[in-house]
Amino acid sequence: MSARLETSSNIWITGASSGIGESITHALVRDGHKLVITGRRAEPLKQLKLLAPERITPAAADTTSKDELQAIAATLESHGDLDMAILNAGTCEYLDVEDYNSDVIEKNITTNVIGTARCLDIALPALRRTRAKGLPATLVIVGSSAWWFPFARAEGYGASKAALSYFAQSLRADLSAEGIDVVLVSPGFVKTPLTDRNDFPMPFLVTAEDAAERIISGIVKGHNDVAFPKRFTWILKSLGALPQSLIDRMAASMARKSSSEQEAKE
Description:
- This protein is α/β, with parallel strands linked by helices.
- Helices cover 48% and strands 15% of the residues.
- Helix 3 runs parallel beside helix 4 and helix 4 (102-132) packs parallel to helix 5 (155-175).
């Protein structure tokens, strides 16, 4: 496939109202691209449109809703041939196993996996129309490096990102014959409104602006896998390659003690 983002492209970005998606929006509009931006909240999208009113089209929708996505399908089509879809919308909710609640698992899976899958209902036909004209088409799925190691409390989040990784790589195999590139992005810790809620140390934390630049750089260079920061992802991959029994012991040693265990110590 030819180089990506060399000229002005039509791009759909989900999860654009904050965090990584917002920073990607700033970077791509700066580089002259035309964008359709999606998020659940309409007001932040309207504010982003002010960056370049003639090149940014807000299309508010909840990506877990088939009906809301179908409602914005016409917006994608009217915006012109879709060269790229960056499916970035996601959530992160941690599980306290002492008060286990499967709703936490469901929320992660629904937003991160089902929401991304449903976006393809409208993104894939649009990308195929572009390919039918002999033009490059790229699907970018933003996952996480979290699933490379079994972190405590991340049963729902890590499982959803593991599923998303498998989903992206399977799509890459299936869409190869059609000439549609599939890029999997696996960030480490990125400072966003979601991670601002975390109550634990986040090693190698990068800004959302830095993350956006790394993602765009990887896409432009033609990489199908974009993982960063390199030191963090290398550590996680190395840990994940250890014998399972050792991984289990390390993961257990890093788990937060339950309130009953803390009380017993006191």
